[in-house]
Design brief:
The chain has nine helices and five strands. The protein is of the alpha+beta class. The protein has one domain. A hairpin with a 7-residue loop joins strand 3 and strand 4. Helix 7 packs antiparallel against helix 8 and helix 8 packs parallel to helix 9. The longest helix has 16 residues. It is globular, with a radius of gyration of 31 Å. The chain starts with 12 loop residues before the first helix and ends with a helix.
Protein backbone atom coordinates (compact mmCIF):
# COMPACT_ATOMS: atom_id res chain seq x y z
CA UNK A 1 0.00 0.00 0.00
CA UNK A 2 1.36 3.47 -0.95
CA UNK A 3 2.26 5.91 1.89
CA UNK A 4 -0.03 8.97 1.88
CA UNK A 5 1.61 12.32 0.95
CA UNK A 6 2.39 14.83 3.76
CA UNK A 7 -0.18 17.27 2.39
CA UNK A 8 -2.87 14.65 2.09
CA UNK A 9 -6.05 15.73 3.97
CA UNK A 10 -6.37 12.21 5.33
CA UNK A 11 -3.13 12.44 7.37
CA UNK A 12 -2.95 14.45 10.60
CA UNK A 13 -0.04 16.81 11.23
CA UNK A 14 1.08 14.84 14.30
CA UNK A 15 1.15 11.60 12.30
CA UNK A 16 3.20 13.21 9.52
CA UNK A 17 5.75 14.70 11.93
CA UNK A 18 6.22 11.36 13.64
CA UNK A 19 7.38 9.88 10.33
CA UNK A 20 10.13 12.51 9.78
CA UNK A 21 13.74 11.68 10.82
CA UNK A 22 14.86 12.97 14.19
CA UNK A 23 17.30 15.44 12.58
CA UNK A 24 18.03 17.47 15.72
CA UNK A 25 18.89 14.34 17.69
CA UNK A 26 21.12 13.08 14.87
CA UNK A 27 23.00 16.41 14.82
CA UNK A 28 23.61 16.36 18.56
CA UNK A 29 25.07 12.86 18.38
CA UNK A 30 27.27 13.73 15.40
CA UNK A 31 30.91 14.55 16.27
CA UNK A 32 33.56 16.38 14.26
CA UNK A 33 36.23 14.28 12.55
CA UNK A 34 39.13 13.33 14.78
CA UNK A 35 41.57 15.45 12.74
CA UNK A 36 39.54 18.58 13.50
CA UNK A 37 38.38 17.96 17.05
CA UNK A 38 41.70 19.10 18.54
CA UNK A 39 42.14 22.11 16.26
CA UNK A 40 42.88 25.34 18.16
CA UNK A 41 42.95 28.69 16.43
CA UNK A 42 45.72 30.43 18.37
CA UNK A 43 49.37 31.41 17.86
CA UNK A 44 51.95 28.67 18.13
CA UNK A 45 54.64 28.79 20.80
CA UNK A 46 57.21 29.68 18.14
CA UNK A 47 55.16 32.66 16.98
CA UNK A 48 54.61 33.79 20.56
CA UNK A 49 58.36 33.52 21.16
CA UNK A 50 59.21 35.68 18.15
CA UNK A 51 56.94 38.35 19.60
CA UNK A 52 58.41 37.89 23.09
CA UNK A 53 61.97 38.68 21.99
CA UNK A 54 61.00 41.65 19.83
CA UNK A 55 62.88 44.71 21.00
CA UNK A 56 60.41 47.52 21.56
CA UNK A 57 61.13 51.20 21.04
CA UNK A 58 64.54 52.44 20.01
CA UNK A 59 66.79 49.76 21.47
CA UNK A 60 69.36 50.39 18.73
CA UNK A 61 69.96 53.85 20.21
CA UNK A 62 70.95 52.37 23.58
CA UNK A 63 74.39 53.22 24.91
CA UNK A 64 74.31 50.62 27.71
CA UNK A 65 72.99 47.04 28.08
CA UNK A 66 70.40 48.29 30.58
CA UNK A 67 68.96 50.71 28.03
CA UNK A 68 68.72 47.91 25.46
CA UNK A 69 66.51 45.69 27.66
CA UNK A 70 63.22 46.46 25.97
CA UNK A 71 61.77 43.05 25.08
CA UNK A 72 59.13 41.03 26.91
CA UNK A 73 61.66 38.38 27.96
CA UNK A 74 63.62 41.01 29.86
CA UNK A 75 60.61 42.50 31.65
CA UNK A 76 57.97 39.80 32.15
CA UNK A 77 57.86 37.53 35.23
CA UNK A 78 60.81 35.15 35.07
CA UNK A 79 58.72 31.98 35.40
CA UNK A 80 56.54 32.99 32.46
CA UNK A 81 59.61 33.69 30.34
CA UNK A 82 61.12 30.29 31.13
CA UNK A 83 57.82 28.51 30.46
CA UNK A 84 57.42 30.08 27.01
CA UNK A 85 61.09 29.50 26.11
CA UNK A 86 60.83 25.82 26.99
CA UNK A 87 57.59 25.46 25.02
CA UNK A 88 59.11 27.16 21.97
CA UNK A 89 62.30 25.08 22.10
CA UNK A 90 60.51 21.81 22.88
CA UNK A 91 61.56 18.87 20.75
CA UNK A 92 64.96 20.29 19.96
CA UNK A 93 63.69 23.40 18.17
CA UNK A 94 66.37 26.09 18.01
CA UNK A 95 65.08 29.53 18.96
CA UNK A 96 66.96 32.79 19.31
CA UNK A 97 67.42 33.72 22.97
CA UNK A 98 69.70 35.86 25.14
CA UNK A 99 72.72 34.11 26.63
CA UNK A 100 71.43 34.49 30.19
CA UNK A 101 68.12 32.77 29.37
CA UNK A 102 69.83 29.67 27.99
CA UNK A 103 72.02 29.57 31.12
CA UNK A 104 68.98 30.08 33.33
CA UNK A 105 67.14 27.26 31.55
CA UNK A 106 70.00 24.85 32.32
CA UNK A 107 70.32 26.02 35.92
CA UNK A 108 73.74 27.62 35.41
CA UNK A 109 72.34 30.97 36.55
CA UNK A 110 70.09 31.26 39.59
CA UNK A 111 68.02 34.13 38.21
CA UNK A 112 67.82 36.65 35.38
CA UNK A 113 69.22 39.50 37.45
CA UNK A 114 72.50 37.59 37.81
CA UNK A 115 72.86 37.72 34.04
CA UNK A 116 72.03 41.41 33.96
CA UNK A 117 74.68 42.01 36.62
CA UNK A 118 77.30 40.38 34.37
CA UNK A 119 76.34 42.61 31.45
CA UNK A 120 76.32 45.76 33.57
CA UNK A 121 79.66 44.88 35.15
CA UNK A 122 81.34 44.37 31.79
CA UNK A 123 79.96 47.66 30.52
CA UNK A 124 81.10 49.57 33.58
CA UNK A 125 84.61 48.15 33.20
CA UNK A 126 84.94 48.89 29.49
CA UNK A 127 83.16 52.25 29.54
CA UNK A 128 85.92 53.55 31.79
CA UNK A 129 88.61 52.56 29.26
CA UNK A 130 89.23 54.70 26.16
CA UNK A 131 88.46 53.11 22.82
CA UNK A 132 85.68 50.69 23.83
CA UNK A 133 82.25 51.05 22.24
CA UNK A 134 79.02 49.22 23.07
CA UNK A 135 77.13 47.87 20.03
CA UNK A 136 73.37 47.51 20.66
CA UNK A 137 72.10 47.08 17.07
CA UNK A 138 71.68 43.32 16.93
CA UNK A 139 68.77 41.07 15.97
CA UNK A 140 65.85 40.22 18.25
CA UNK A 141 66.97 37.83 20.98
CA UNK A 142 70.66 38.47 20.31
CA UNK A 143 73.15 40.02 22.72
CA UNK A 144 74.90 43.35 22.40
CA UNK A 145 78.70 43.36 22.43
CA UNK A 146 81.71 45.64 22.88
CA UNK A 147 84.27 46.61 20.22
CA UNK A 148 87.75 48.02 20.77
CA UNK A 149 87.78 50.66 18.03
CA UNK A 150 91.58 51.29 17.92
CA UNK A 151 92.07 47.67 16.82
CA UNK A 152 89.82 48.01 13.78
CA UNK A 153 91.84 47.04 10.67
CA UNK A 154 89.95 49.68 8.70
CA UNK A 155 89.03 47.37 5.83
CA UNK A 156 85.68 46.14 4.59
CA UNK A 157 86.49 42.58 5.65
CA UNK A 158 88.21 43.38 8.94
CA UNK A 159 86.73 43.43 12.43
CA UNK A 160 88.07 44.94 15.66
CA UNK A 161 88.72 43.09 18.89
CA UNK A 162 85.31 42.26 20.33
CA UNK A 163 84.01 41.12 23.71
CA UNK A 164 80.86 38.99 23.52
CA UNK A 165 78.58 37.31 26.03
CA UNK A 166 78.19 33.53 25.91
CA UNK A 167 76.53 30.67 27.76
CA UNK A 168 79.11 28.16 26.45
CA UNK A 169 81.14 28.33 29.66
CA UNK A 170 80.72 29.70 33.18
CA UNK A 171 83.02 32.67 32.59
CA UNK A 172 80.25 34.08 30.34
CA UNK A 173 82.69 36.09 28.20
CA UNK A 174 84.58 35.46 24.96
CA UNK A 175 87.09 37.77 23.33
CA UNK A 176 87.42 37.71 19.54
CA UNK A 177 90.80 39.13 18.42
CA UNK A 178 90.86 41.67 15.61
CA UNK A 179 91.30 40.13 12.17
CA UNK A 180 91.29 40.95 8.48
CA UNK A 181 89.72 38.04 6.64
CA UNK A 182 89.92 34.79 8.59
CA UNK A 183 88.52 35.04 12.13
CA UNK A 184 90.85 33.87 14.87
CA UNK A 185 89.51 31.50 17.54
CA UNK A 186 87.59 33.15 20.36
CA UNK A 187 89.38 33.32 23.71
CA UNK A 188 87.32 32.32 26.74
CA UNK A 189 87.72 34.71 29.68
CA UNK A 190 87.15 33.81 33.33
CA UNK A 191 84.40 36.28 34.08
CA UNK A 192 84.61 39.96 34.86
CA UNK A 193 87.71 39.54 37.04
CA UNK A 194 89.47 37.63 34.26
CA UNK A 195 88.58 40.31 31.74
CA UNK A 196 89.89 43.07 34.00
CA UNK A 197 93.13 41.19 34.60
CA UNK A 198 93.79 40.68 30.87
CA UNK A 199 92.43 43.93 29.49
CA UNK A 200 95.81 45.53 28.75
CA UNK A 201 96.86 42.34 26.96
CA UNK A 202 93.60 42.18 24.99
CA UNK A 203 93.91 45.79 23.88
CA UNK A 204 97.36 44.96 22.47
CA UNK A 205 96.16 42.16 20.20
Amino acid sequence: MTEPMLDSPTVSASTALSRLPNQRGDQIKRRPPARLSGLRVEPTAALEWSQAIERMGYATAASTPAQARRSWVERAPERQVLHLFRAASHGGNTVQAPWWLRALHRGDLVHRQAGFAVEDGVHELLANRPGWFYVPWVGDGEDGYWEYVPSDPGTSTGLPTTVTLTDAHLGWLDVHPAHENDPRPAVAVAGLAGLAARLAEIEGW
